[in-house]
Amino acid sequence: MFWNKTAEEKQNTKSRCKMVFQSPPRAPFRLRTGVQIFSIGTILLIGWQFITWVHGLENGITTGTRPPGVEGFLPISALMSLRHWYESGEFSMIHPAGLVILCLILLTGLLLKKAFCSWLCPVGAFAEFLARLSHRLFRRRLKLPVWLDYSLMSLKYLLLLFFGYAIFVTMTKLEISEFLVTPYNKVADIKMLYFFTDLSTTSIWVLSILTILSFVLPYFWCRYLCPYGALIGLVSLFSITRVKRHEADCTNCGKCAAVCPSFLAVDLKTAVNSVECTGCLECVANCPEDEALQVRGPRFFQNRVKPVVFAVLVLGLFYGGIQIARISGYWRSNVSQAELVDRIEKGLEGPEYDHVGRPPSDK
Ligand code: SF4
Ligand code: SF4
């Protein structure tokens, strides 16, 4: 039976065309877990502030402030703002934090692979939690046959293509700038909250199925469906850091490949260039040889990037970038509290709030 073999035997088994159960992850990389907990705590705090603020507005209380970080959950609006910024030179102040977060995520991809996915993203953390829970119960990691795995992976690129085509090809420059000031976009974060607090039966089914699938197949959403992850993955091809294996120090034990959540054959590569590498450093943390597996920067930078330095860079880049945006005035939206109260009082159900791209009826 495949699952009675040692990790090395499993790694060497020519089973890439079958559905296989790989050996379990070993010691989790606690430094990253700590960063994930910090990140989730921050997002929960933002969520709580946002819910409290919207609830206050519904009751005419305007003393609270809207947490700009919530705009990180508006990636489509952020992509449109990015195009608008590129074409007009104007940094849209409707959801500036969303654009700042998008830029920081792309910058992270350029410098530190898909570290956003494995260190900071709440969905990635939830997917990892489900994967670990699944492993605790079944002591196995299910991997699909290569043909099915690759076919499913193409879905996230198709979704990215769909959104990219809609935003960068079908919409004109004028339509983009008009969309950004629509009532729909101004209250997109509040509409998103209402979507989650008033889930339709279909949405509940979809979320439940995705959760179950992520439990059975580790990282189902991230690996197969997340267009954001697909975008960061493509950007990460140009990342200046990557995991490198020094063959002279490697004993070919296969532990790095066995713990890789992206099923990458780290033990067979000299450098991990894959778009699926999330920079989680589980391989580095679990390698028993000190020098065999390291994060390396550009050629002129001789030293290895130690995991703790990598963690500081991830946090510093993301939260430091946010602080710079905050200080320089590119963080808080210029949509006034009074305008939002007025819109909420009149209700967000009109035609101007239900269709992306509809010409603005008022500004
Ligand atoms: S890089 Fe490390 S974990 Fe991977 S095969 Fe070599 S010695 Fe083992
Ligand atoms: S290769 Fe290493 S850093 Fe990349 S996803 Fe796999 S375990 Fe994480």
Q: Can you give me a brief rundown of this structure?
A:
The chain has 363 residues and is mostly helical.
Please give a structural write-up.
With 363 residues, the chain is mainly alpha-helical. The protein has two domains: 31-241 and 305-352, no CATH class; 242-304, Alpha-Beta Plaits (2-Layer Sandwich). The chain has helices at residues 7-12, 30-58, 75-88, 96-112, 115-120, 122-138, 146-170, 173-180, 183-186, 188-197, 201-216, 220-225, 227-236, 255-259, 282-286, 307-327, 337-346; strands at residues 20-22, 141-143, 242-245, 293-296. The strands form two sheets. The chain has a two-stranded antiparallel ribbon with strand order 1-2. Strands 3-4 form a two-stranded antiparallel sheet. Helix 3 packs across helix 8 (173-180), helix 4 (96-112) runs antiparallel to helix 16 and helix 6 (122-138) packs across helix 11 (201-216). The longest helix is centred in the N-terminal third of the chain and has 29 residues, at 30-58. It is globular and about 70 Å long. It binds iron/sulfur cluster (2 copies). The site of one iron/sulfur cluster has 14 residues, from helix 14.
